Amino acid sequence: MAGKDLITVTVCGGGNAAHVMAGLVASRKNTDLRILALEDDDAEQWTKSVKESDFILSAYDADMEMKDTAVKLKLITKDPAKAIPKAELVILTVPMDLHETYLEAIAPHVSANMTIVGIPGQLGFEFQCLSILKTKAKRMNIINMPGHPWAGRIVEFGKSVKILSKEESMVMSVTRGSGKTDKDPVQTLQYLFGQLPELVLYNSFLEQILSTKSILNPPIMMAAWKNWDGKPFTKKPLFYQEVTDEAVKFISDCSDEAVLTAAEITKQKSSVALSNVVHIFESLKEEYKYNIEDNSSLIQAIKTNTAFSSYRHPVQEVDDGKYEPDFNHRYINEDVPCGLVIVKGVAQLAKVKTPALDKVIKWCQEKMGKEYVVGNKLEGKDVSSTRAPQRYGFKTLEDLIEML
Fold first, then answer.
1. Residue 42: other Cβ atoms inside 10 A
2. β-bridge partners, 199
3. What is the pLDDT of residues 259-294, one digit of tens each?
4. Contact 24/192 with Cβ under 8 angstroms?
């Protein structure tokens, strides 16, 4: 980051990601860090810890040796009025189910020209920011990362954290508001992260939605258990390595519907760039090009992906050595309302039929005791608990395009 201008950053949260982000920000020159921790007594405990000693960030250097960096953390609070004003970047490093809590807490204190960052933001983060921050959000930048840039673990709460690994690159979306900022928010974020991960931009949040990997797991769950006889079993089946042709057909069909949606949006609105939306087979081959041993077909790309090799079907033990499928696992209760339902919502606005998505969502929603899709429409009573655009009042494709 060129120049000596101070960068004011607020990191929100008290978990692993917040500890890592706080350490990274505090270790950079010309930064003013505030930490906003709303959960329980996190702020009080963290404040007490940093009074006793410096905060230690441990990470591998260029020679792959673990290096400790001692930094000073000055302001840790649970009062948004102290943490938010004049911050250039407000970074939410909390689970998705806490985003609403934090956004509502900071809403009275944010101002135009700020940048809100979700690490991870996950699908629909932009809709939620606009809903809660209202007109202010239209003048702010919103950065949405689909995952974590690094794997980090707290060594001792409030005192030390270790970065175990970093992603080589991280794709993210930026929704730019009408306000003016002195520094480019993406360059600023890259400066705070360091060389890795390299930040790569989607053309828009729509590309992120229609490129989601959340279409991978629910079809595998459905194909594996839709004919289950209800009897406990003794072997935990491998999740990806034993994937079936039926599951892969549904994965492929759901991906086809996402790609078709992108094509239809571009057809209706030629100015909208969605060139990065490709079939999941192509995206898996690119993302896991060093892990996939056989990329001759989608099923082989899944089965021979060494990054997937150790995963087993989520189960719960019901007796000694006997199991039943766990339908409350994140492969369903996150990937459906936080993934498939949002893709379905965008497709519906584009007037694209989605029979494969509908079938998978309907099977999953029955297991969840929820109702999202009724017939072939996203109008069930539980849509209001998702981040689908329909929840936030988007009724036409034009409404959605206005956000771009």
1. 20
2. 170
3. 999 999 999 999 999 999 999 999 999 999 999 999
4. yes
